[in-house]
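Please describe our next protein:
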Amino acid sequence: MNVVANDLVGRVDCVESIGFDAPALAQAAPFDLIFANILKGPLIDLAPAMVAHLAPGGIAILSGLLVEQADDIVAVYKTQGVTLVEREDLGEWTALTLSSA
C-alpha cells in the first residue's frame, strides 16, 4: 500500500466511498483540500456534494479529464459557488484547481 511505502501510516486515512456517503467523510468534513482524479461524468454528478464538503477558502483539485471537457466542468462548479484558480493542460489531459468562497 502506498501509505506504508511512503511512511505515512498514522498521517493518512484511506476511505472507500461512493461519493461522500461514507460516515467517516461526513464526520471529518469540511475539508481544506479535496483531490478527485475521476472522469467528467462523476465529477459533474459530485459537484454539489463536493462543494458542500469543501471548507470556506478550501481547494479542490480535479483531474482525470480531457482538455475538451474542462470548460463544461468549470461551468458546473461555478454554479456551485467555486472559482477557477488555475488550469493546467498536459497534452490531452487537464487539471483544474478550484477554490470555494
Helices lie at 2-5, 23-28, 40-45, 47-52, 70-79. The chain has one domain: 21-100. The CA atoms of residues 82 and 100 lie 4 Å apart.
